[in-house]
Amino acid sequence: MHLSDDQLLAGLADGSDAILTELYRRYFPVVLHLVTSNSGTEDDAKDIYQEALIVLYEKVTEGSLELHCQLKTYLYSVGRRLWLKQLSLRNRNSPMQSGIDLVDTDSPVSVDEELTEQEVRDRQFELMADSLDRLGEPCRTLLEDFYIRHLSMQAITDKFGYTNADNAKTQKYKCLMRLKRLFFSVYKEEF
Amino acid sequence: MEDQKLTDWIDKWLRNELTESERLQFESLRRSDPVLDQKTREQQQLATAMQRYGQRVDFRKRLNRIHAELDMDAMRAEVQQRASQQEASVKPLSGRVRSLWQTYRPILAVAASVAIFTTFGTLMMVRQYQSSHKQEQQYSLLRRDLQAIKRSQSVILQDINFRQRALQLNPGQVAGSGFLLSPDGYLVTNTHIIQDADSVYIQSTKGDIYKAKVVYADHGYDLAILQVRDDSAFRAKSALPYGFEAGPSDLGERVFTLGFPRDEVVYGEGYLSSKTGYRGDSTAYQVAISVNPGNSGGPLLDEKGNVIGIISGKQTSTDDATFAVKTNYLFRAISAIPTDSLKGSPLRMSRKSVLAKLPRKEQIKKIQENVYLVKVFKHEK
Q: pTM surpassing 0.80?
């Protein structure tokens, strides 16, 4: 099948696995070529490509994606920036190479805004992951079931074996208050 | 309990689980209650952050699943194809330049650094040389070039005796001052006076000449230790009138010196003007005293008749900026002498001056017997 960029993006927003698979395999060689041409491994290329797809995905689901170029160029440009960042992090220990020059395997467009936004999202993601880790079980699963998987209170009551829904609600309330403290103690200072 | 109810309400509102009337009630309450409003916003932020977290975790899983099923060989083949397409589109020359650049970049970087290093290194060395050269010009060693003086004298003096003519013909003579460190014939002078010497003679104020031997020469402090040796004519004295003061002297201290800018001993007096010497040299004093070539190696004494330094040079660009090596460094130089150089006769110095209460004229009389003209004979180079 051959899908246009728009169709791919629509499928990405819908959460279609088939379209995501098609998108993935269509543009992976672009990033693979870039990373392996610039002292990276295939695994590096995989990580960079997936991060670039996450940028795309989160912009699409937020509804804030404005594509002014081909999807291929967009993914190449984002991947290029991410790989540059990765290289500079790795080279921090060897100051001999201060300026990094990438051999471009394609022509990039400016994606500064994307990268700045993504840094904020990354930070929030890390913070939430850390807060949930520190929250521990069963609070973590309980909150994830309710807020992420959108289970009903009744389903949660049954799953966790609470005697009634009010007990489950009290438990959820206590867990949420703890998470709130953990998350906002850092979040408010930073954002 | 109230708080838990509110939280529950907010959750329901966020999940759109409220009835229409409940929703309107909640929203009007929120507008009138800033605390509830704040709570709602925080809970919404928290819920959104959790959802985004869940979304990304889920998306990553999907990506990994897709990647696991990816035909990597096909991907590699596509990369190959892309690469060869690119090579074809890029002009061969620029491709070669680029690959050369890639290959030799580290070497070029090293070469460039070496070039930069050499350039700045050379510049620095030239500067250093220039400044040291300048220093040499400004810091004149106060030895006397006898030949030059004799020559100028010979113009004035028509009648020269044979001995003087003989001296005149002996090239490379240098003269300075020196003085006794101990009654048994150890003297100190400057290293710059005795360097390259074939033979060293000392001449007393009375005109007696003795042969001396260089026991030790310290180039760092410009101090040399001489010993009158194997000269039966030299009679050891019982004690020296002056002492040696190693402690720091104060600015403004009245000082005087005796030396041989001519064949006759010459007295000069002045004051201590700085505790450091030429260009902040901490091993020397700066003294405002009038000296001339030949004064080098003479003692610098304070009012009580203690030796506080050894005259070593002056700054040519400034009047009355004379430098004297501190006595402290004389002691250091002496302690650095290898014991076998002393041939079993240790160098004993007194720290006590017997001149303290004497008037200056009496002081000078007693000191001058122990100050010598140091004559150095060298081969012509």
A: no
